[in-house]
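#struct-pred
JK: can someone run the complex with magnesium ion? inputs below
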Amino acid sequence: MIKKIGILTSGGDSPGMNAAIKAVVQAALKKNINVIGICNGYTGVIQKKFKLLNDNKVKNIMNYGGTILGSSRFPEFKQKNIQKQAIKNLHQKNINALIVIGGNGSYKGAQYLTEMGFPCVGIPGTIDNDVLGTEYTIGFQTALNTVVKSIDKLKDTSLSHQRIIIIEIMGRYCGDLALSAFFACNCDFVILPTVLFKKKILVQEILKNLKKGQKNFIILMTEHIYDIHTLSNYIQKKTNKETRAIILGHVQRGGSPVTYDRILATRMGYYSINILLKGISGVCIGIKNNYIVHQKIKNLSIHKKMSFIQKWSLKSKNLYHYTYF
Ligand SMILES: Nc1ncnc2c1ncn2[C@@H]1O[C@H](COP(=O)(O)OP(=O)(O)O)[C@@H](O)[C@H]1O
Ligand SMILES: O=P(O)(O)OC[C@H]1O[C@](O)(COP(=O)(O)O)[C@@H](O)[C@@H]1O
Ligand SMILES: [Mg+2]
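RT: done, structure tokens with the ligand placed:
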């Protein structure tokens, strides 16, 4: 019988995490379940940083970016003895189950705790959209909006100065943010983790378009593919065209969540409580064809992630210049 649950946010924060916390607390309270907020991800479980959450503490947080619980990266949580200590601390606080809001790394922690006998449910919170078992993660749409607004501004100055601008976008090893922004902003080229990158071919394409009279270029690139400054210098040298490198960085993780993320977080938060009450754990929540669904975390694998957005890129015959999808 579940009387008290814990909730934590882990890994990179994402806009909409607060909306998910709010939904979990309100759904739990309706079922007479107490909710303990755990500060700073798995670190807080070990450091016993617990605080009771009630309706007053969550009712006004829906529109806040970040997470009121704080988050962290805590690599020590991969160790079995640390996981055992976590379960001990949770039992000591009379917590019967744990809701983990985070990405694929955080899910692993939830999976192992469940396998060790402590029931956990995962809610996908990351801007990267790199989690299997869901078409969208909480925070992706907000981050995409931020990226699109930034590119629009960079386009203005690229046009005025007739420059090439290359923009590095987050996503870890997932190109969903970059590819979606590419379409939304009608950019010139996009460099993605799913497509082999050859800088010579990119330069050839730029030169071809320069000859046709094109004056400015916007190139998007997912992080971790190529050093953006080296690439920018290379392009400038080979094309004789002024080139600037921009890393959008952590601005992509902040801000008030857009409506889609608020609603997604709310639906997933409510669903997670219903799932726990049915005695189901070791699962993560997702959205598929606009239905909220769940599946076993252990059936997910980071390497298998191929969202429908990534599939668009496979349809393109041209490596860097996507004209249809
Ligand atoms: N293999 C693992 N086993 C146990 N815990 C893990 C594992 N991988 C990650 N974690 C925990 O989840 C946290 C967040 O993972 P990370 O990959 O950094 O972010 P995200 O969950 O957003 O993808 C880690 O700092 C660690 O505490
Ligand atoms: O904030 P940090 O620790 O520098 O991490 C940066 C990474 O976090 C992210 O913003 C989000 O990643 P996670 O959701 O996996 O934590 C990635 O896009 C980026 O590579
Ligand atoms: Mg991740």
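RT: quick notes.
Residues 143-254 form a domain with the Rossmann fold fold (CATH 3.40.50.460).
The first helix runs from residue 17 to 30.
JK: thanks, will look after standup
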